[in-house]
Amino acid sequence: MQAKDIRVSIGRKDILHGVNFRAQPGKVTAIIGPNGSGKSSLLKAMTGEHDYTGEITLNGQDIRTMRPWELASLRGVLPQAATVAFPYTVTEIVRMGQMGGLAGDDPTLPARALARVDLAGFGPRFYSDLSGGEQQRVQLARVLAQVWDPSVDGQPRWLFLDEPVASLDIAHQFTVLDVARDFALAGGGVVVVMHDLNLTAMFADNVTVMHQGRIAASGAPADTITRGLLQDVYGCSIGVSRAPGKDVPYLLPQMRDTGVA
Ligand SMILES: Nc1ncnc2c1ncn2[C@@H]1O[C@H](COP(=O)(O)OP(=O)(O)OP(=O)(O)O)[C@@H](O)[C@H]1O
Ligand SMILES: [Mg+2]
């Protein structure tokens, strides 16, 4: 997918100032950047939720020319915050995703999607009774049920995930990021907004860094998550090392101000 010269304004405020972004199927592409830098706004433009100027294509097609059902069959969206106002069960919510896409009517799909996010057996429970992290994983199961097959007739499908691990414990952060990686390995495309830079370095193939509504850098984790970036974009003096045995960047909070290269 590609976004060219994207500008978003809300009211009188310019939020994105000409953003160019690219994500490839088969890869996990992370978007990082400080609070308010425009990550969610870019995701919302790319998923058709925000008006924008510029051009956004998904599998080579301008999303403005696509019908809502075409978009729904091609990409699932996990918003940063999802509220559910009615007393739905977990299965009902996942089934809404299934019916929104073209994943078919297989009645076993919700249970399989729930098992994928470690919520086997949660189907009959009320969503409102679940913990925050459980609710977040139900929302991911809903998105998975919408675009269950990462590639259909050679055409990739896409996951757009806005901070999918934000309220998850460490084990479930891995569960969810494994889901994202498996989706990409099976030929789908994944665009994921992240804050945890170590997890990003571990899971992302490519990283785009946003800063004040613009792209500050993009490339491999080792080329983007650097000491200079942390200083320039986050205003934070933190050393960046290498993860043991791997060529990926690694940050430790106690490395603040130590001068480690
Ligand atoms: N509906 C809106 N009305 C006015 N300003 C908005 C609106 N939505 C976003 N903004 C502003 O646009 C900027 C970018 O917001 P956005 O939600 O894209 O940031 P973000 O990078 O996702 O941040 P976070 O890490 O906190 O989620 C912020 O300054 C925000 O206040
Ligand atoms: Mg956001």
From TrEMBL:
SMART domains noted in UniProt: AAA
Domain of life: Bacteria
Keyword entries, A-Z: ATP-binding, Hydrolase, Nucleotide-binding, Translocase, Transport
Domain ABC transporter: 1-237
EC number: 3.6.3.-
InterPro entries documented for this protein: AAA+_ATPase, ABC_transporter-like_ATP-bd, ABC_transporter-like_CS, P-loop_NTPase
One term of GO molecular function: ATP binding
Enzyme class name: hydrolase
Pfam families: ABC_tran
Alphabetical list of PROSITE patterns matching this protein: ABC_TRANSPORTER_1, ABC_TRANSPORTER_2
PANTHER family per record: HEMIN IMPORT ATP-BINDING PROTEIN HMUV
Function of the molecule: Part of the ABC transporter complex HmuTUV involved in hemin import. Responsible for energy coupling to the transport system.
Name of protein: Hemin import ATP-binding protein HmuV
Organism: Falsiruegeria litorea R37
Organismal lineage: Bacteria, Pseudomonadati, Pseudomonadota, Alphaproteobacteria, Rhodobacterales
Gene from which this protein is expressed: hmuV
